[in-house]
Amino acid sequence: MRTGLLAAVVVLGFVLAIAGVHAPGEPGSLAWAGIALTAGLAAWLVKRLGDLPGQGWQALAAPLAFGATILALWEVLVVGFEVPMALMPAPSAIAARMASGAHLLWQDFVQTFLKAVLAGYAIGCGSGFLMALLADRVPFLRRGLLPIGNLVAALPVVGIAPIMVMWFGFDWPSKAAVVVAMTFFPMLVNTVAGLAAAGALERDLMRSYAAGHGQTLLLLRLPAALPFIFTALKVNAPLALIGAIVAEFFGSPTTGMGFRITTEAARLALDMVWAEIVVAAVVGSAFYGAMALIERRVTFWHPSVRG
Amino acid sequence: MRASILPVLTVSAGIVVLWYLGAVWLNWQVVWDMQARAGHAPDFATMVSLTLSHARPLLPAPHQVVVETWNSLTGPPITSPRSLVNHAMVTLSAALAGFGLGSLAGVLLAVAIIHVRALERSLMPWIIASQAVPVLALAPIVIVALGALGMTGLMPKAIISAYLCFFPVAIGMVKGLAAPDALSRDLLRTYSATPAQVFWTLRVPTSLPYLFAGLKVAVAAAVVGAIVAELPTGAQAGLGARLLAGSYFGQTLQIWSALTVAAVVSATLVGVVGLAERLLARRMGARA
To answer: Which terms under GO biological process does the entry name (chain B) (predicted)?
Structure first.
């Protein structure tokens, strides 16, 4: 109850503060004192919410309140201190730009995500998976490939972007190629580890049923490998987006998220850059979340999902 | 470990062979056209040797990359803009500065999160969610914003690297500091250990494997961050600037040699972190 009252006070305080800084004229020292007080109350609120016991929406209350506080403070400080756009645009300016530039953002999303990322992700994860099946069949290949796969994980793979641009041109296939290179090895390494995860007992059972390699693979070892495969799918989701965006830094047609970010940053139009970042963040989390959701549906039997 | 040397060598040799075949195949058309324009009709053996020694190949042969890398490492004086040592040092210093800053911040945040439950509840979801966000896309913003504040050169790149290092270290360290089981904590409680003693004698030692797992990811990410940070602003020096210049002027060999050096730098750093982990583990009495 008292938490609810506190939350109402904080919300009211921030609404007043945002209205105050947007009103014409300099905010006085009294106004800043009020804002500081509100921020202090907000911190107290987050602390109270964080100490709440409970699951579900109650566990969400603290992070949501924290995020909202940061956003409100950002707006108040940037507008109140008249921070220039080239340094840091206010959230409201970013939102306005997202609304006015929606068609550009959509174009870039189609170019970068729907074309480059999805194609590259599918090819990279698919070929990594197939290579893992092959490596599983040929132990010699597995012992040779795994250390190399682990080494590649330590390398700045995204640096191959200029080469891919040279090979496949400026349009999305070169970005997809970078994504393929970035997603292949995590998939390979994880799938190989997953295929080794089935227990000896279950394998012996399959053998006693006279199951062949293919049957054991399909009925026992692939299902047992699913958690590992989904780990790779989840790790690869933001990697793929990063690969496509950074590859566009090396040359692209006049559309695409990476292209927009570099050109608008060079023009100091940071509101557009931030709008693009927001899209990238939402798309990246949604992509990751989609994979996590599919994982929960497909590996419903796994202890980590059953809870 | 020893059992995998032969397979690794075989697979590596296979990659090199494929690479040579690819170089011949990819460069064939360009070389053939050049020869045809000059009025030559070279036989197969000449063509192969020409495709493997082209100055601006689509795909340079491995020996060309090795020679170019060696030449640009040892040839020009270290201060020259043509020296890869110079570029590598620029990138390495930014990556290391960022790695230090970011790891320190990550560890400090993890310690705070472990001790203040409200911080964990309110911050951890954001830290985990931020893993799914393409952080590198922020690089141009950081550079432009810091440039507007008059900060150029090493610092903006280090901050991007630090930002990339921060998350894996923080997440690993939180996991590690929370790792001691109830039994060990109860034991320390029966000794009436103070919270500080519990922290230093139990939590910190238990967290080290988790910390180093995070540090290995972080140091590789720091190099990527430093390289990518050099892309969007037309930096003058650094491996990323070298990559970009090579891609503008179609200097394939320059791109490949910069990539090679970047790979060596990155792998060495990860190796050094791994070595530090083993040394520390041995000092702390691990038997491995």
So the answer is: transmembrane transport
Report the predicted TM-score, pTM, of the whole model to 2 decimal places. 0.84
The whole-angstrom separation of Cα B275 and Cα B288 is: 13
Task: Compute the distance between CA of residue B198 and CA of residue B185 in angstroms, rounded to an integer.
Answer: 8
Q: Supply the pLDDT for residue B232.
A: 66
pLDDT mean over A40-64: 76
DSSP B4: G
Q: Which residues contact B114 (CB under 8 A, 6 or more apart)?
A: B120, B174, B177, B178, B203
B31 and B91 fall within a common domain: no
Chain A partners within 8 Å of B125 (Cβ): 60, 63
Does residue B159 share a domain with residue B31?
no
CA distance B67 to chain A (A): 19
Q: What is the pLDDT of residue B99?
A: 94
Question: Closest approach of chain B CAs to the CA of A27, in angstroms?
Answer: 24
What digits encode the pLDDT tens for the residues B76-126?
777 777 778 888 888 899 999 999 999 999 999 999 988 887 777 778 778
Shortest distance between the Cα of A208 and any Cα of chain B, in A, equals 30
Mean local confidence (pLDDT), B234-247: 80
Residues B234-262, mean pLDDT to the nearest whole number: 83
What pLDDT score does B30 carry? 80
Whether B174 and B270 map to the same domain: the answer is yes
Cβ separation of A155 and B262 shorter than 8 Å?
A: yes
pLDDT at B288 over 60: no
Model ipTM value:
0.81
Cα separation, A158 vs B224, whole angstroms: 8
Here the tokens at position A75 are: 């707006």
Q: Which amino acid is at B141?
A: I
Nearest partner of A270 among B46, B196, B140, judged by Cα = B140
For tokens 């330590």, the residue is: A154
* Residue B235 pLDDT: 66
Residue among A230, A229, A125 nearest A183 (CA): A125
Q: Which domain holds residue B95?
A: 84-283
Q: Mutate which of A48, A58, A66, A295 to test chain B, going by most B C-beta atoms within 10 A?
A: A66
| The CA-based dihedral angle spanning residues A247, B222, B12, A250, taken in that order and rounded to the nearest 10 degrees | 20
Domain A99-306 is found in CATH 1.10.3720.10: yes
Cα–Cα dist B176/B206, whole Å: 6
